[in-house]
Structure formats: C-alpha cells, structure tokens
Design a protein that fits this description.
CATH superfamily: Single-stranded right-handed beta-helix, Pectin lyase-like
Number of helices: 4
CATH architecture: 3 Solenoid
Shape: elongated
Radius of gyration: 24 Å
Number of strands: 34
Largest sheet: 34 strands, mixed
Strand content: over 45%
Length: 493
C-alpha cells in the first residue's frame, strides 16, 4: 500500500505534466463533422506531439470519426466536454495488431506516460461495426469462424487496448458501445483509472474494464454498465500476474459478473484491496475469484460491498482446466462488511444482452466456496455480512439432498468453466463449502424470506471451520431444523 501512496503522489506529475503543450487535431487536418475519416490526421497529431517530447492531443467539441490510431510516449488524448471520438462504421478501418492479436480503435504498445482524459466521449458504435462484419463474413470478404453467428471477439474492435505500457492515466471520459471488450490494459504498470463512465452493453463480450497481468493499478470512482463482466481481472500468461491493485468507490451493473478474477487465470492475482463497491441488477456473482488455469490467488481483501438484486453474492473456485503442469491455489481471502439481496427473478431481464436463459429456472444457489480435492481453498475470513435470500427451495421442483450418497454425487466439475450456476442445484440455501480449510464466518446473518427445504450451510470436506455469531433467519423454519450439515468436515479446535 505504501507503493500505492507513492504512486498517487507522483501521478499528477507524470500524467498532468504532459499537458504543458496542447496540440489540436484540427490543426492536423481532422474535421469534427461526423463523416470524415480522421485516422491519419489524428495519428499525425499524436506522432508530432510525441516527437516534441509530449503533450495533449486535444479534441474540441464535435464528432471526430476515426479507425485505429496508436498512442505514443508522453501523449495524452484529451477530449473536451462535447467532443466525441466516433468509431468508423467500416470494419476495414481497424487494425488487428499482430503483436497482441486483437483489434482496437485506440492502441498503445510499449509506451510510457500516456493517457486519455477529459469530459468527452469515446463511442465505438460497435453494434453497427460488428453487424457490418457479419455481412462481410457471409459474403466471403472477411475470414472468421462466425461461431454463434457473431464474429470472434479478437476481430471486433475494442475501444482501448494498451499493452506493456508504463504510466497510464484514464480519467473522466465516457466510454460506450465497443465492438468487443471495452478497454484492456495488458501487462501494464502504474495504471490509474478514475471517474470514468462506461455504457458497454450493445453487443457480445462487452466487458466494462479488463486488467490483464498488470501491476500497481488503481481504479476508483467509476460507474460501469456492462453486458459482460464489469471489473474483470485476467491473467493470460503463466509468467505474469495481476498484483498490487486498489479498486474502490465504484458502482457497476452486469449481465455477467461484478468483480471477477479470470478467466483466463494462468499466472495469478495477489495483493488486492477492494472496498466500498456497489453491484446491482447483475446476473451472475457480485464476487467471483476463480483459479482454474493454474493461477495463484492470495492476499485479497474485500471491505464494503452492497450487492443488490444480484443472482449470487460470493463464488470462490479452484479447478484444473488449462493449468498443467502448474497447480492452482487460493489462500488468505478476507471478505467483510457486505450487505446483499438475492432475488427470485432474473436480475438482468430486459437488457439487450442477458445472461443465458438456460440456467433458469432452478432453485436459488447459495454462496459457494468450492476447491478441488488436491487443491483446497485455504484461510478465508468472512465477517460482518448480511445476505437476504428469497428462500423457497422446493424439493419437488429439483432435489439435492444431504445424505452421503447425495453429497458424493455432486460432480467435482474440475475442468469446467467456472460459474456459480454450473451445478444447477446445490444442497444449501445460504452457503455451500467443499474442499477447504480454515474457513471462518464471523457476525454473519443469513435470511431466507420463504421456507426452504435445504439447510443454510453444507460443508463437504471442510476442515477447521469456525462459526462465530452466525444467525440463520429462515421464515417459518421448524424450531428444530438442522441449519448446518457437516460431512467429512470438522470444526476448528
């Protein structure tokens, strides 16, 4: 954290020191008429500013159409309020960069002290671009597998893709309508994202923000509405990882997950502080930490989550998908000060791109800690938590019991893509834990608004469990109902 504080102190020097000189794109021939393709003029302004030692490339109010451009050393793109950088509607105006293998409107590769700032907008117009690509693919003009009748995500333009950059500032801009993921920061150092708004729900794979194998990252005071994962941390390389990350004071909605590690999860995620977050109307989990590709996950603190109208609250998972020969692990996780409400209905109903309807209907899933036999999840503290569930689990609708035969019959799903709903039915209404050690629940309240045939907590191969001031408030539950089932499990001594 000391490193974070030093980073904050130096941020204004590194980011805003660039603003000593302004270069206006209009002076390089760009036109804000919403029609003219300005890629060459914008690139000329960027190249000139970088050659002069750096500065701001300024977009005044208007609609500036562009295809792919590359940000260079010591250059900040500054969009004044009322300025919109419009993605070209022609897929041929975008570059699929051979080094990263992705397509983007704005690239930066191996650059230093760069940024995008201002009160303006970056609008990828991705829905239209992607559908133009579909037309070209059908006509044989563009090569793409067109799986599920959509172009592959690497061929559709993101709004921003920065790779191996040092000193990145993204501040105050409004990002919308990408053709693929929205903004990716890949193997970057010293990344600062503050005060941005994101509307990223017009097409498939529209993540809010993707942080891939980056170090020393701060994301704060952002609002993100996404079709896919909101705050998505990935590790694409077994030789790199995401570490030293602060995520705070943000609000997000998603038709997938809220705060997610993975997938892909090859290297790892270490030294995270996540605090004062609100996740709402989100289809999958508010918190998903997954290590199924060999990731090392440790030293993660989540402090302050409001999860409202979200399908699942907590999902911690290890597995073996693409990990060989590297084993995964997850340890030293703290999740505290959480208030959550899980609805009975589909949380993202009515949005353009919803979570898959085939996962429903089913009995509502509990929170989940699910390791695997050889790679258990270790040392998890959950405290000061209240979760309100709808209850109403019905054995006639779908039954999952707690006999040894029932519990042994739950598939390990070791190689599956990790989602809380992968088991469909689980035998607890509050928390299901499997293959874990050193789990502590302290000052935790589970509320079920209707009676549920299942117990609140089921533990299968959980060693050293501590339950301290845990309340089970289930409507109309029999006074003698057993709310905790221990199978092949033990309490801490």
């Amino acid at each position: 954290m000391k490193k974070f504080l030093f980073f904050l102190m130096t941020l204004s020097v590194s980011a805003y020191g660039l603003a000593a000189k302004d270069y206006f794109v209009a002076d390089f021939g760009a036109r804000a008429d919403g029609v003219t393709l300005n890629s060459k003029s914008i690139q000329a302004a960027i190249d000139f500013a970088s050659a002069q030692g750096g500065g701001r490339v300024v977009f005044t109010p208007g609609n500036w159409v562009t295809g792919t451009v590359y940000v260079k050393d010591n250059v900040t793109l500054h969009l004044e309020s009322g300025a919109t950088l419009l993605g070209s509607l022609n897929p041929w105006d975008y570059v699929k960069d051979p080094y990263v293998g992705w397509t983007s409107m704005i690239f930066a590769l191996k650059q230093k002290n760069i940024g995008i700032t201002g009160g303006g907008t970056i609008d990828g117009r991705g829905f239209t671009v992607a559908n133009h690509m579909v037309e070209y693919i059908h006509r044989g003009l563009f090569e793409d597998p067109l799986k599920l009748d959509r172009p592959n995500e690497v061929n559709r333009p993101q709004n921003i893709y920065f790779r191996e950059c040092d000193g990145v500032t993204i501040k105050d801009v409004f990002l919308k309508d990408p053709g693929s993921w929205n903004q990716t920061y890949d193997q970057c150092h010293n990344v600062y994202v503050e005060g941005i708004r994101v509307d990223s729900k017009s097409y498939w794979n529209n993540d809010g923000i993707d942080i891939v194998d980056c170090e020393d990252v701060i994301i704060r005071n952002c609002y993100i509405d996404a079709a896919d994962d909101i705050f998505c941390f990935k590790s694409h390389s077994a030789n790199h990882m995401c570490k030293n990350v602060l995520l705070e004071n943000c609000v997000g909605r998603s038709s997938a997950n809220g705060i997610k590690f993975g997938t892909v999860s090859k290297g790892g995620f270490k030294n995270f502080t996540i605090r004062n977050m609100t996740i709402f109307d989100t289809y999958r989990s508010a918190i998903t930490f997954a290590a199924v590709d060999g990731a090392e996950i440790e030293n993660i603190t989540v402090d302050g989550i409001r999860s409202l109208h979200t399908g699942n609250v907590i999902f911690l998972r290890t597995g073996e998908r693409w990990n060989r020969p590297k084993p995964p692990y997850m340890r030293n996780i703290v999740i505290r000060n959480v208030y959550a409400e899980v609805p009975l209905d589909k949380p993202d109903a009515g949005y353009n791109y919803e979570g898959p309807i085939e996962d429903l209907p089913r009995n509502i899933s509990p929170c989940i800690i699910a390791g695997i036999p050889n790679h258990k999840i270790e040392n998890v503290l959950m405290e000061n938590i209240e979760i309100v569930f709808p209850g109403g689990g019905n054995p006639r609708y779908a039954y999952r019991g707690t006999t040894p035969e029932d519990l042994d019959g739950i598939d390990e799903m070791i190689s599956y893509y990790p989602e809380f709903s992968q088991w469909k039915e689980l035998p607890a209404w509050g928390f299901y834990m499997r293959h874990a050690t050193g789990i502590t629940l302290r000052n935790v309240v589970f509320r079920a608004q209707k009676a549920d045939y299942r117990p609140a907590i089921v533990c299968d191969d959980v060693q050293g469990l501590k339950l301290e001031s845990v309340v089970y408030d289930e409507f109309a539950a029999p006074a003698n109902k057993e709310q905790v089932v221990m199978y092949k499990s033990s309490y801490a001594e």
